[in-house]
Specification:
The complex is a heterodimer of chains A (about 475) and B (about 120). Chain A contains 14 helices and 18 strands. Chain A has a six-stranded antiparallel β-sheet. In chain A, strands 8-7-9-10-11 form a five-stranded parallel β-sheet, sandwiched between helices. In chain A, a hairpin with a 3-residue loop joins strand 4 and strand 5. Chain B has about 120 residues and is mostly helical. Helices cover about 50% and strands about 10% of the residues of chain B. Chain B is built from six helices and three strands, in the order H-H-E-H-H-E-E-H-H. The chains are: A alpha/beta (about 475), B mainly alpha (about 120). The interface between A and B is large, with 46 and 44 residues. Chain A: Keywords: Amino-acid transport, Signal, Transport. Chain A: This is Leucine-binding protein domain-containing protein.
Chain lengths: ~475, ~120
């Protein structure tokens, strides 16, 4: 078990208790209470809290760090409890007590696990020793615990842990135990390369990457001479093969646009598209694919904007969309950038004049955008919690049993990692020590019929079409 | 790693030295080299490549003051290595300082009466 330490601090502020309590989540209190942001101060609300760790220095590729989690308990004007999952799992408890009529004593307590301390030390640049090799078959998860990608990767580690636990419960891989090491790329390709090399040094035979394409490319280059299987296990633009030891699972943007273009143009009553994305390979590939598909479907691209990863102010982009007369806005933005963009589109009233297609609107991103701002956004992904596939209800139950009611939602991005780890364990069970190319070939061999959870066909291009409503992303159709 | 240990005295601002120390790219590079073992200044400078021995020495002095690197003398040679316990202690101190600053309302916040009000809903 992860051991836990509790830290605490308190102070007295010159405000009545109700006013002090009301500052939480308002987003106007600067560093106070970590500049917490949430739509409502209510149990179940998602919350993000800024951590002032080495600033937000983009010059060296570093993004700001946020605690992402959920309010788990509230007593008005008295108590707030936040359970967070990113960058580490922990709990923050706030207590507000009146100190006379005009002053409030506020106490904050944080439960910090050993893995939280590990994360902080590594974030500081100190290379902690990796666990000594055991007889277990070691695999790595390169995920994103900080920076803009942390939003969509919230549940990834949990789903990877769940897959490993289920493999272990069935006796491991070919009689060997399966062991998972986890690394954070901080949405930074340079860190992805360094952490990938560390996972290889620690003896990982395969690395599952739930990261941006830039990070995956950097990882691939960093370990190109090593005997390690690389699996990109989230939606990506495809292409750029690295031989038999590099596998890219997940949805492809061309398929997503093909599935949604015609219904969206019908619903919008127009054919003019505006593409918004980021300045790296994912958006470049996605927009290229979209232009090709739209050309064949009678759509026209009337504008395009690509911004650096880590953008939070989209005022200029929103203005350009409005001025373009577009009927449909397609966004390939990811994570916190997509959250900011969709919120600003809704606030600017764009929903009244345009339909919105978001390529990476998974459940986790959706809840950070918020139900009101996300209303009507459509997407197409291989998995949704609202998934009719066999075994899904059981997966959701096992996940909640293990990680509790406040853990982030499962989404296509994390479920694909779960599927990929299970599939790997099945594929290499006869020869866990085979070289990476052998393992890659085995992983690509057809396994299972296709749509059931735990045996989902990650190479097929089956998509569910979903629309954001008041309760979340609702599956409305299927394609492929 | 055990983190259930006592947290020691409440920290002061300059006990966050290590996290400041790590803001430098060369120092981060030195730390990743020390992750592989114990080295002399010359060995570290050879591996860092881009800066000289004198610069590496001054970076090592900062890291040693911060408590994340320790020095061992053997005759005329000095060997440097990571101080894992120092790193853990520093991480706790850093978190403690975050918590303390989080409950301190900036003066200007209290000066603005409207800052304490939220919009309905």
């Amino acid at each position: 078990m992860d051991s836990t330490a509790t830290l605490s601090a308190e102070s007295v502020v010159d405000l009545p208790v109700a006013d002090t309590f009301a500052l939480f989540g308002s987003g106007r209190s600067e560093a106070w209470l970590f500049d917490a942001r949430c739509e409502r101060v209510a149990a179940g609300s998602v919350v993000s809290m800024r951590l002032p760790i080495d600033g937000d220095d983009r010059r060296c590729g570093r993004h700001g760090v946020e605690l992402l989690g959920r309010i788990s308990a509230v007593r008005a004007n008295s108590r707030i409890v936040v359970e967070h999952d990113q960058p580490w799992r922990g709990r923050i408890r706030l207590a507000f007590d009146a100190d006379g009529a005009h002053r409030t004593r506020i106490r904050v307590r944080a439960d910090v696990t050993a893995s939280g301390i590990d994360w902080l030390i590594r974030r500081g640049g100190v290379a902690l020793p990796d666990p000594a090799p055991t007889g277990a078959l070691r695999i790595g998860l390169l995920t994103t615990k900080s920076g803009p990608g942390a939003v969509y990767a919230s549940a990834t580690q949990y789903l990877a842990e769940l897959a490993v636990a289920e493999v272990e419960a069935l006796g491991g891989v070919g009689g060997r135990r399966l062991e998972l090491l986890v690394a954070d790329d901080a949405t930074d390709p340079a860190l992805a390369a360094a952490e990938g090399a560390r996972l290889v040094r620690a003896g990982c035979r395969a690395i599952f990457a739930c990261t941006t394409s830039s990070s995956f490319d950097a990882l691939r280059y960093a370990v190109r001479h090593d005997d390690v299987l690389l699996v990109h296990s989230v939606i990506n633009e495809g292409g750029a093969s690295g031989g038999e030891s590099v596998i890219r699972f997940g949805e492809r943007p061309g398929d997503q646009v093909a599935a949604l273009a015609r219904p969206l143009m019908r619903a919008a009553g127009g054919r003019r598209w505006f593409l918004v994305g980021q300045r790296y390979s994912w958006s470049f590939g996605a927009h290229h694919a979209a232009r090709r598909v739209l050309g064949g479907a009678g759509g026209t691209v009337v504008g395009e904007a690509c911004v650096p990863l880590g953008t939070t102010d989209f005022a200029g982009v929103v203005d350009r969309v409005a001025a373009s007369g577009a009927d449909i806005v397609m966004s390939s933005l990811v994570g916190a950038d997509e959250v900011a963009f969709q919120r600003q589109c809704a606030a600017a009233g764009l929903r009244a004049s345009t339909k919105a297609l978001s390529l990476v609107m998974d459940e986790s991103t959706w809840e950070h955008v918020g139900a009101a701002a996300a209303d009507g956004v459509v997407t197409a992904l291989g998995y949704f919690q609202d998934d009719p596939a066999a075994g899904n209800a059981d997966l959701l139950r096992r996940y909640r049993d293990r990680f509790g009611p406040w853990a982030p939602p499962i989404s296509s991005l994390s479920e694909t990692v779960y599927e990929a780890v299970l599939r790997y364990a099945r594929a290499v069970r006869h020869d866990p020590d085979a070289d990476a190319a052998h393992q890659g070939r085995a992983l690509l061999r057809p396994a299972g019929a296709g749509s059931a959870i735990g045996e989902r066909d990650l190479l097929g291009r089956h998509l569910y079409l979903a629309e954001a409503g008041p309760e979340g992303l609702r599956v409305v159709d299927e394609a492929g | 790693m055990s983190t259930g240990a006592s947290l020691g005295p409440v920290t002061s601002a300059n006990e966050n030295l290590a996290f400041d120390a790590l803001s430098d790219r060369v120092r981060r590079r030195i730390l990743s080299i020390l992750g592989e073992g114990e080295f002399t200044v010359t060995e570290i400078a050879d591996r860092v490549g881009v800066v000289g021995r004198t610069t590496v020495s001054s970076h090592l002095r900062v890291l040693r003051t911060s408590g994340i690197v320790t020095e061992r003398r053997d005759g005329r040679l000095r060997y440097y290595s990571l101080d894992a316990e120092g790193s853990v202690r520093d991480a706790f101190n850093f978190l403690q300082s975050l918590l303390e600053s989080s409950v301190r309302v900036a003066d200007r916040e209290q000066d603005r009466p409207d800052a304490a009000r939220r919009e309905a809903g």
